[in-house]
């Protein structure tokens, strides 16, 4: 049985699809058989990005498929070395299904209280539902400064959750790369790629 | 000079929400109903099947004055019955009156 990583959040635009793609790209680059299950059929963010990637003929190639429910996606996970559940921007019974099946549940969050507070509450709910804390991790995305990053880590630490090492700073280059079907580890700037790789490595080390 | 470092280090974000503040979102259904599904008020859903189930399948059109029409509709609305039900009740009452 392969590994399942779930990206969940109550909010949109925090980095679920961004990180899903980067993890998939890096794993595929290492020769793993990877699939992203895009669980937001209304938006199909990762599916559309994958189409752009295929049109740009970028390597490595991996699979992205939309699924209506988490259970439908999870039923396919055994066929892959790494199965990534890119959740919708909403918390529901599907979130619990993702959390139960995943080896690691990552919740990306921005640095504002508007993002952090509901994010903490999502993990509180999962813990209340019996999901072990050590399966839960925050990933800091769209951070402005290093001071802001420190404050977020401290805030999350107070709620007794862990935050993955590294973070994604708010950079137009990340957006531009993804507009062309690239992952955030494939930008034109080595330093940005390195930052993204640090976060991805921390995520893999957490499994 | 007093050392204010402790106050400077205070996290501007404040305290995170307590575990007791967790909501009940995990109980929500995973998929929402389609946006194009027509809105139906419960109890007011009258379609062909409902009509067949009640046996009221025949059209019944006639000419009345605006006042009678208004009175008729207001009584049906006040008593929360359909216009067909009101007609049946009116007929029953009429026959009872004739018999008495």
Short structural description:
The complex is a heterodimer of chains A (207) and B (100). Chain A is an alpha/beta fold. Chain A has helices spanning 16-29, 45-55, 70-74, 93-101, 113-128, 146-158, 172-179, 190-205, and strands at residues 3-9, 34-38, 63-66, 82-89, 104-109, 136-140, 162-163.
Structural overview:
The complex is a heterodimer of chains A (207) and B (100). By secondary structure, chain A is α/β, with parallel strands linked by helices. Chain A has a single domain (3-205), classed as Rossmann fold (3-Layer(aba) Sandwich). Chain A has eight helices and seven strands; from the N terminus they run βαβαβαβαβαβαβαα. Chain A has helices at 16-29, 45-55, 70-74, 93-101, 113-128, 146-158, 172-179, 190-205; strands spanning 3-9, 34-38, 63-66, 82-89, 104-109, 136-140, 162-163. In chain A, strands 3-2-4-1-5-6-7 form a seven-stranded parallel beta sheet, sandwiched between helices. In chain A, β2 (34-38), α2 (45-55) and β3 form a beta-alpha-beta unit. The longest helix of chain A is centred in the middle third of the chain and has 16 residues, at 113-128. Chain A is globular, with a radius of gyration of 16 Å. The two termini of chain A are 14 Å apart. In chain A, 49% of the residues are buried. The model of chain A has no long low-confidence stretch (mean pLDDT 95). Chain B has 100 residues and is mainly α. Chain B has helices spanning 5-8, 48-54, 66-78, 83-99. The longest helix of chain B has 17 residues, at 83-99. Chain B is rod-shaped, with a radius of gyration of 31 Å. At the A-B interface, α4, α5 and α6 of A face loops of B.
């Amino acid at each position: 049985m392969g590994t399942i990583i779930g990206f969940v959040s109550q909010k949109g635009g925090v980095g679920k699809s961004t990180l899903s793609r980067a993890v998939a790209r890096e794993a595929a680059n290492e020769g793993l058989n990877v699939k992203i299950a895009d669980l937001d059929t209304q938006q199909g963010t990762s599916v559309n990005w994958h189409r752009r990637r295929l049109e740009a003929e970028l390597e490595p190639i991996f699979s992205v498929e939309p699924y209506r429910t988490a259970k439908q996606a999870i039923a396919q996970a055994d066929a892959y070395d790494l199965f990534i559940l890119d959740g919708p921007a909403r918390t529901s019974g599907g979130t619990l299904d993702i959390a139960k099946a995943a080896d690691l549940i990552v919740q990306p969050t921005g640095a504002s209280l508007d993002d952090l507070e509901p994010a903490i509450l999502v993990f509180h709910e999962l813990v209340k539902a019996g999901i072990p804390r050590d399966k839960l991790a925050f990933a800091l995305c769209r951070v402005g400064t290093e001071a802001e990053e420190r404050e977020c880590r401290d805030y999350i630490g107070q709620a007794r959750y862990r935050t993955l090492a590294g973070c994604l700073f708010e950079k137009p280059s990340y957006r531009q790369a993804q507009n062309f079907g690239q992952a955030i580890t494939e930008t034109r700037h080595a330093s940005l790629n390195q930052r993204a790789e640090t976060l991805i490595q921390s995520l893999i080390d957490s499994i | 000079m007093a050392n204010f470092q402790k106050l400077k280090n205070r996290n501007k974000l404040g305290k995170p929400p307590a575990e007791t503040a967790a909501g009940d979102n995990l109980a929500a259904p995973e998929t929402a109903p389609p946006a194009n599904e027509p809105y139906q008020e419960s109890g007011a859903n009258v379609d062909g099947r409902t009509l067949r189930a009640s046996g009221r399948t025949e059209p019944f059109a006639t000419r009345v004055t605006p006042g009678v029409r208004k009175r008729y509709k207001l009584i049906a609305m006040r008593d929360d019955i359909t216009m067909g039900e009101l007609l049946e009740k009116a007929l029953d009452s009429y026959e009872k009156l004739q018999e008495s």
